[in-house]
Write a structure and sequence with these properties.
358 residues; 12 helices; Glutathione S-transferase Yfyf (Class Pi), Chain A, domain 2
């Protein structure tokens, strides 16, 4: 005897026309290319310059679009089998599917537009595989003074540097000598009232006064050094529209740009900045252990090449050599460092530095 008795909810003689298949899908074995290969071909046609995440997203989008299209064809075939009778729930599902397809096509169009503008996917760039290009010579480059110092309106573009006589900026004196070889430079040295006395070598560190110093319009640049009681070296070339540049390393980078000698290769430019920061913060301001570590690094680098960046003299050699000379490490330096210092001296650019070290 049954435990419960339930009345039938439908007549016993009802006939239901069931389809003979659940889904209709194309025969991929009979075609020359399956859906996955077709999607991959579409993806590869526009993948140049894309990052891995863009490729992954685009492949998933195309794969999902292909699947939805096949489902759309299957749904239409099933509608034909049901003699035009559409369930409301199925109709709502179809509308939702059409909306999803529309949004996917919009996203695909947006990604295609972005792919045309993105040509260097930095997120996927491996800096360890970059190769260094040939370094540019310090004396071969050209610099546009109008772009660096502003347009020449008839007044002399004067670079004014405030420095403490207790710590002379040796590398800036070397750069001044290089600027004098490239441009017509009007040089002058002054003493601020905050300083009581300055040694004679510091007063003549920029060389003798030019005989045409009264005619300022004949010069391209002005280089004014003021010995002043300041804690940090400062530079200005436009007192009205700029704040001062502080730090000997930062001013040296600026002056080096006037020579047009910046490395064009990004790897070489990064290495130059690393050597400059190492020299300033460890050789000049560090302890004995830090100085010894830097000298070992210099010795190893100079054992592989003539200069710090390869075969060309650069700002890294100027700053590091001046810091080694200021630290008094010339006699105790390793063999490669001493050979390198001798090469710097033979260039003639450091002649203005050695009188200040005595």
């Amino acid at each position: 005897m049954p435990m419960y008795k339930v009345k039938p909810v439908s007549p016993a003689d009802i006939k239901i026309d069931l389809p003979t298949r659940m889904y209709k899908s194309p025969n991929i074995h009979a075609q020359g290319m399956n859906c996955g290969q077709h999607a991959l071909q579409l993806l590869c046609s526009g993948m140049r310059g894309w990052s891995f995440s863009d490729l992954h997203f685009q492949f998933n989008t195309l794969q999902l679009t292909t699947t939805l299209k096949e489902m759309d064809h299957t749904r239409k075939d099933d509608d034909d089998d049901m003699n035009g009778e559409v369930d409301p729930a199925l109709k709502a599902l179809e509308e939702r599917q059409d909306e999803v397809l529309r949004r996917l096509y919009e996203i695909k169009a947006t990604v295609d537009g972005l792919a045309k503008t993105v040509t260097t996917p930095d997120a996927d760039l491996d800096a360890s595989t970059l190769s260094r290009g040939p370094a540019e010579s310090v004396f071969r480059g050209t610099a546009d003074l109008d772009s660096l110092l502003g347009k020449d309106l008839g007044a002399l573009r004067d670079i004014v540097i405030n420095a403490s006589p207790a710590c002379p900026p040796l590398c800036l004196l070397v750069l001044h000598a290089l600027l004098c070889q490239r441009y017509q430079v009007l040089s002058s040295v002054h003493v601020h009232s905050s300083v009581s006395a300055v040694p004679p070598p510091l007063l003549s560190c920029l060389g003798p006064r030019h005989i045409d110093s009264y005619a300022r319009q004949r010069f391209q640049l002005g280089f004014t050094l003021i010995w002043k009681d300041v804690s940090e070296l400062q530079m200005k070339f436009n007192t009205q529209s700029m704040c001062p540049i502080e730090g000997e390393a930062n001013v040296a980078r600026f002056l080096f740009r006037l020579l047009g000698g910046e490395p064009q290769d990004p790897v070489a430019a990064t290495q130059m900045d690393c050597w400059i920061d190492t020299a300033v913060f460890q050789l000049s301001e560090g302890g004995s252990k830090e100085r010894a570590a830097v000298l070992r690094s210099l010795n190893a680098a100079l054992g592989r090449s003539e200069w710090l960046l390869g075969q060309e003299f650069s700002l890294a050699d100027i700053v590091c050599a001046c810091c080694v000379l200021r630290a008094g490490q010339t006699t105790s330096a390793p063999v490669n460092v001493q050979r390198w210092l001798k090469s710097c001296q033979n260039l003639g650019h450091f002649d203005c530095v050695y009188p200040l070290l005595q």
